[in-house]
Amino acid sequence: MVYKKNTMEGSLFEPTLYLVKGMCIMDNDGNRILAKYYDPDILNNTKDQKAFEKNLFNKTHRANAEIIMLDGLTCVYKNNVDLYFYVMGSSHENELILQSVLNALYESVSILLRRNVEKRILLDNLDAVMLAFDEICDGGVILDSDPTSIVSRAALRTEDVPLGEQTVAQVFFNIMNK
User: Fold this and answer.
1) CA–CA gap between residue 29 and residue 43 (Å, rounded)
2) Tens digits of per-residue pLDDT, 147-175?
3) Predicted TM-score (pTM) of this structure
4) Domain ranges, ordered by start, for the chain
């Protein structure tokens, strides 16, 4: 639980589970591949989100740090080959918690993509990565930070495609592997 200090009264707010304000994956040009924002009070429209992401990328793509304060948000990030992974929280959020969410996101994607964390492969498996986003965080509440359990739940959900919506190759693959 995180206690938020009220600067007006000097007292503590009630504990909250809403720690994550957003998660985002961008390519090495700063273009959004996947993003989810959980706080409607900040970045509540696509135009604001794109402007924030552009600014965030410009501040982080050459830096060697892992954390930045930007527009009142604490942002932790990691890059690999041609992708940048970001997790955002409020300015008073614990960076270690945000870093654990970032590590869970990156490791889950790494496992899902069989250690080939590159833009082309991520785009080919975007559905599974989107499910991993949902398994990590729901509405700003951290659900899980164990990459193995995240991947196992995301993989189970991707296998539940109705027979009529599967390609012939998927049906053949499922038959051969049972």
Assistant:
1) 21
2) 999 988 877 655 555 555 556 655 556 66
3) 0.79
4) 20-176
Q: Which fold has domain 20-176?
A: Beta-Lactamase (3.30.450)
Contact 83, 28 (CB under 8 A): yes
Alpha carbon distance 26, 50 (integer Å): 11
pLDDT digits (tens, 9 = 90+) for 14-60: 667 778 999 999 999 999 999 999 988 887 888 999 999 999 999 99
- At residue 23, the pLDDT reads 95
What's the CA gap between 26 and 152, in Å, rounded?
Answer: 24
152-161: long-range contacts, CB 8 A cutoff, minimum separation 24: 154/108, 154/112, 154/128, 155/112, 155/128, 157/131, 158/127, 158/128, 158/131
d(C-alpha 149, C-alpha 130), whole Å: 15
Q: How far apart are CA 42 and CA 164, in angstroms?
A: 40
Q: For the chain, what's the residue count? A: 178
Torsion angle of alpha carbons 80, 86, 91, 96, nearest 10°?
-60
**Among 35, 39, 41, 33, which residue's Cα sits nearest to residue 20?**
39
Residue 23 and residue 54 in contact, taking contact as beta carbons nearer than 8 Å: no
